[in-house]
């Protein structure tokens, strides 16, 4: 297993996509945070928001990196199907497909942790770099630290989620398309339509971890349980499909 983990970890930095994806996440975060902060001065003057709330938002919305981590996980698996390398990977694993799934999950989670470190470092600096430019002094509180921790956790968890989606779909286009559409379209729409149901969706449950301010979200511990259930369900489906379907 150690050799397999070493081989899979080495694959995480093959190609350029692992470098390009964080740029996408940071760009989305920067656009969102700049937009929110630029409008906040008026809100503070009107008494509809506070410097502490703006500081939280300037940290919270770097959670956009979690989509990059999920796409990395999906591509980490599906590019091997696209190139036909997946058969060789199974041979290297000794024909133990479950062991290969585990190795890819571990390797992708390590990369997801790297993405999370980058996201939280930028998130921690962002209020001090951006808010004073708009005449707002950051107000860092205990809750801000909790938001920052949530950004880190959801980014880490998104990498294995992406791996499992990749194992299920086997297609780079389908897996990335699903993650983008589900995260930015389907889940928010369903949640607006039926919030009592939508809060149990994986992406919406993750928003509880970085203390999103929407009122219908699950408490943090409930969200952790829901996310764990989604990961387990995806792992069971991926494992079943991998053992029942031809790898090519």
Helix-strand layout with pairing:
Elements: H1 2-11, H2 17-46, H3 51-60, H4 65-83, H5 86-92, H6 97-130, H7 142-169, H8 172-193, H9 195-198, H10 202-209, H11 220-244
Helix pairs in contact: 1-6, 2-3, 2-4, 2-6, 3-6, 3-7, 4-6, 4-7, 4-8, 6-7, 7-8, 7-10, 7-11, 10-11
List keywords for this structure.
elongated, 248 residues, mainly alpha
Rg (CA only): 19 Å
Q: Strand tally, please?
A: 0
Structure class: mainly alpha
**What average pLDDT do the residues reach?**
90
Characterize the overall form.
elongated
Quickly count the helices: 11
**What can be said about the biggest beta sheet?**
none
Brief summary of the model shown:
It contains 11 helices and no strands. The chain has 248 residues and is mostly helical.
Description:
It contains eleven helices and no strands. The chain has 248 residues and is mainly alpha-helical. Helix 3 runs antiparallel to helix 6 and helix 10 (202-209) runs antiparallel to helix 11. The two termini are 23 Å apart.
């Amino acid at each position: 297993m150690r050799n397999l983990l070493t081989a899979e970890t080495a694959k995480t930095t093959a190609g350029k996509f692992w470098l390009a994806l964080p740029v996408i996440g940071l760009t989305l975060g920067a656009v969102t945070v700049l937009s929110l902060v630029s409008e906040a001065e008026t809100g503070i003057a009107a008494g509809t928001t506070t410097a502490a709330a703006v500081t939280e938002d300037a940290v919270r919305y770097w959670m956009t990196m979690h989509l990059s981590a999920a796409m990395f996980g999906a591509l980490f698996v599906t590019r091997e199907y696209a190139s036909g390398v997946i058969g060789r990977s199974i041979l290297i694993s000794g024909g133990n497909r479950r062991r290969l799934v585990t190795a890819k999950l571990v390797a992708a989670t390590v990369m997801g942790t790297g993405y999370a470190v980058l996201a939280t470092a930028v998130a921690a600096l962002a209020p001090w770099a951006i808010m004073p430019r708009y005449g707002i002094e950051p107000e860092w509180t205990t809750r801000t630290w909790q938001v920052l921790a949530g950004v880190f956790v959801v980014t880490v968890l998104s990498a294995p989620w992406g791996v499992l989606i990749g194992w299920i779909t086997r297609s780079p286009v389908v897996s990335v398309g699903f993650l983008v559409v589900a995260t930015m379209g389907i889940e928010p729409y369903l949640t607006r339509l039926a919030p009592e149901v939508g809060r149990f969706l994986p992406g919406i449950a993750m928003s509880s971890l970085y203390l999103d301010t929407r009122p219908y979200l699950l408490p943090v511990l409930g969200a952790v349980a829901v996310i764990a259930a989604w990961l387990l369900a995806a792992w069971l489906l991926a494992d079943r499909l991998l053992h029942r379907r031809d790898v090519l």
